[in-house]
Structure to design on (655 residues):
């Protein structure tokens, strides 16, 4: 188990829900919980992952997500069971879609 | 033997054939041979140095004849030159390990790829070349004509007429080349019947047949369980449908056999129909009877399918859908690999399939170190045929994107669809293909590249679609590939500014550029989510093999 923490600047999100949950903790998959954060223009992410040694890729995946989406003002918790970057990116997009009601 | 014409003799092959038949007759072997005597027959009619074609593809296999040949005496039979589509069975490789055969010209080796590579390194085998199916069939009629062919059919009648059933596959091409150039045709059949449902190969092209102790092996290679399709594959399928199928109006096509394209097949009745694409895309196919196409057929999305071979369990469904599939007067399907490959080459506007590795020029290969796997039909399907002369909207649009409004030819759409990482985080996008190292270690004349980069028009990944037709320089092409290569080292080394410019020009399109909501990229969008769903869609006509049944 590895724990990672990231904080990236991002355009503020417009929440439509108090929180959003997406995905499941299963092999090759992950669970993402988005809740309101403390800083309107930052996306703060904490990752718990079963796969060690992929910190650099996590950083790149989350940086790209924060750059491409209005995801500021959020605190995102991820429980990962070895999801590929493709799955992580898709689930982040889906979770944010739920959180903002489709407005990104 | 295959010596040139001795002075004044113009019928050596015919006379040689007669001598071989006389040797068999001297042993008391007639047209119908009993299974235990097939070894004697092979030793009587095959000569050292012969070119021998053992029928077998990724579906039907002449497995009894192959095992019997492998059990022949290497003193009697040696230095055979095998010319065959597929090296798939353990007995195929045994031929070389036991010193019966020494040279191989083939197309695909799949599961035997590792053993084949070891034989090459140990110099127990000489590989002539790795072909596409059509190339190899072509060479049967030019410089690789078999002296003897060992084929598989479903049934024979007493006269020796053959019924191949739905799995006709390579048989007509092999028999035609052998029977009409003084060769000998030997068939294994599953059963002897009084009256055949239809005649696929006439008796006077067949010299011997044997009822094999067990039915010939058929691999259900084209069955993909919808339960294994992932949400990421659904996302990629949505992008492909909206960004390529709809844009070009692709009506005539071939699909690869992976889960990526199975996802597309299962979105035709749902997402594609919702986009108003029914009847506008995917109406005519060169394709094996993929079970995952059943929902699209049942929904009226598909008009016609011609197949290379059949698929285990699909027989009754096919017979009940003769408007869609090619079937005989008896009701069962007639497949034909040579014709379907020709259809895939010249009569289809698109090929879409997957690969294991792709480099920055777009070259792709399924070869990995220590394995020689060959290509099958992919290089044929996945290439732009310069001999094509008929136009279609999809072909013209692609040609004009590449060559401008005055282009004098169109382009076939050749689409590679891959997730950026395979299992165990192996990146698909690489600086250099393993194929180059394999070429060096195996002493091959060419690197085993499956699809050349200059034939590839689009790459679909979870990150988006790269349209290589719109790239104007090698640098643009490289950045377009890096721009969809995700978080692989190749993708992370992209020139971000150039990738953004390519996106502004529509060379790269992301899901959001295509108006795709990621929340819809969900397995719920598939028309069938299990094999059982497919059976239900077929009204109980599809009978999946036991290994795919979990209920």
């Amino acid at each position: 188990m590895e724990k990672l923490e990231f904080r990236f600047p991002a355009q503020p999100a417009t929440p439509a829900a108090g929180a959003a949950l997406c995905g499941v903790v299963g092999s090759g998959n992950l669970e993402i919980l988005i809740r309101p954060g403390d800083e309107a223009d930052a996306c703060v992410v904490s990752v718990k992952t079963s796969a060690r040694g992929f910190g650099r890729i996590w950083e790149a995946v989350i940086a790209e997500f924060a750059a491409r989406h209005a995801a500021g003002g959020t605190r995102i918790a991820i429980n990962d069971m070895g999801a590929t970057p493709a799955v992580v990116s898709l689930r982040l997009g889906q979770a944010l879609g739920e959180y903002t009601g489709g407005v990104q | 033997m295959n010596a040139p014409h001795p002075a004044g003799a113009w019928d050596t092959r015919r006379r040689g054939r007669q001598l071989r038949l006389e040797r068999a007759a001297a042993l008391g072997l007639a047209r119908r041979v009993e299974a235990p005597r097939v070894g004697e027959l092979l030793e009587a009619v095959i000569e050292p140095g012969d070119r021998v074609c053992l029928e077998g593809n990724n579906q039907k296999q002449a497995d009894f004849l192959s095992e019997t040949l492998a059990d022949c005496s290497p003193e009697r039979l040696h230095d055979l030159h095998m010319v065959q589509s597929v090296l798939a069975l353990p007995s195929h490789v045994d031929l070389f390990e036991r010193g019966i055969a020494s040279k191989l010209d083939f197309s695909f080796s799949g599961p035997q790829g590792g053993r084949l590579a070891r034989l090459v390194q140990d110099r127990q085998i000489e590989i002539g070349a790795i072909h596409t199916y059509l190339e190899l069939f072509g060479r049967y009629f030019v410089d690789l004509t078999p002296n003897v062919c060992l084929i598989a059919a479903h049934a024979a009648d007493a006269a020796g007429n053959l019924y191949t059933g739905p799995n006709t596959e390579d048989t007509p091409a092999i028999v035609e080349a052998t029977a009409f150039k003084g060769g000998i045709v030997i068939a294994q059949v599953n059963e002897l019947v009084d009256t055949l449902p239809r005649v696929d190969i006439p008796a006077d092209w067949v010299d011997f047949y044997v009822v094999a102790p067990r039915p010939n092996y058929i691999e259900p290679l084209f069955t993909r369980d919808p339960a294994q399709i992932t949400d990421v594959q659904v996302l990629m399928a949505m992008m492909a449908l909206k960004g390529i199928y709809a844009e070009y109006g692709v009506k005539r096509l071939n699909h690869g056999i992976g889960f990526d394209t199975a996802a597309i097949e299962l979105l035709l009745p749902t997402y594609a129909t919702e986009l108003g694409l029914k009847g506008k895309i995917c109406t005519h196919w060169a394709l094996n009877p993929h079970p995952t196409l059943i929902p699209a057929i049942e929904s009226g999305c598909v008009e016609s399918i011609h197949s290379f071979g059949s698929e285990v369990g699909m027989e009754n469904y096919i017979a009940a859908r003769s408007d869609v599939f090619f079937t005989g007067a008896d009701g069962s399907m007639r497949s034909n690999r040579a014709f379907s490959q020709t259809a895939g080459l010249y009569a289809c506007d698109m090929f879409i399939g997957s690969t294991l590795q792709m480099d920055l020029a777009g070259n792709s290969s399924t070869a990995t170190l220590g394995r020689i796997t060959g290509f099958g039909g992919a290089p044929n399907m996945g290439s732009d045929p310069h001999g094509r002369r008929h136009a279609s909207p999809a072909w013209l649009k692609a040609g004009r994107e590449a060559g401008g409004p005055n282009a004098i030819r169109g382009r076939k759409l050749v689409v590679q669809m891959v997730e950026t990482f395979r299992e165990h985080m192996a990146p698909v996008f690489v600086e250099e293909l393993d194929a180059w190292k394999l070429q060096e270690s195996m002493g091959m004349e060419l690197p085993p590249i499956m699809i050349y980069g200059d034939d590839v028009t689009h790459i679909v990944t979870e990150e988006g679609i790269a349209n290589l037709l719109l790239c104007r320089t090698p640098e643009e092409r490289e950045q377009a590939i890096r721009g969809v290569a995700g978080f692989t080292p190749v993708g992370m080394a992209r020139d971000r500014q150039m990738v953004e410019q390519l996106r502004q020009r529509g060379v790269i399109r992301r899901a959001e550029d295509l108006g795709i909501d990621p929340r819809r990229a969900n397995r719920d969008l598939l028309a069938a989510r299990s094999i059982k769903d497919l059976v239900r869609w077929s009204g109980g006509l599809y009978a999946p093999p036991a290994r795919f049944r979990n209920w």
